[in-house]
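Quick one:
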Amino acid sequence: MTTLNLTAELERLIADITARHEAFSHIDPSRLMVCINSSRSSSCGLFAKIHPLRFPGGERVRTVKRGRFTYRCTMPDVSHKEVELLYVIYFAMPRFFDRPLKEKLITVFHELYHVSPQFDGDIRRFTGRNYAHGGSTKKYNRLMEGFVEEYLQTPYARELTGFLDHGMADMRENHRAIVGRRMAMPKIRVERL
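Output:
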């Protein structure tokens, strides 16, 4: 029995997606950290979450006015292997891993598509009220489903997605240990001016 490193497998998959799929070619996987976090159940809630490390326009510091007070908000510096990171993606364990393969892949593509086309640490912003997904989350996910279908047609894609074929119970049965990187969500520093 072997040890399964979930973050290493997800990082390999993400590196391949960004190398092969034009819609994600602007992403530098070395500046994106993959982590896992614990979830209570596999039936409801978030499966994954992207945490941008910059404000709109790639700014690290932003001044905002709330009522009669002004605040300076500063994004934290987060580095890994001496490389400054721009994004952290968290995958919920076991919730994400207990989904069917296609839903897991749609989730990976969904989170990656949030990365700004400028790759400046901010998220992709659509026009309108729902700037994260555009006018319809269902339409957004249908687009991701199309990206997944395209990706699965590329050579070796099934080799890289094989670890996602199983749920957590099967993974635990087939591996001596399951490991993954955990990191507390980076906190924005807020100072009243």
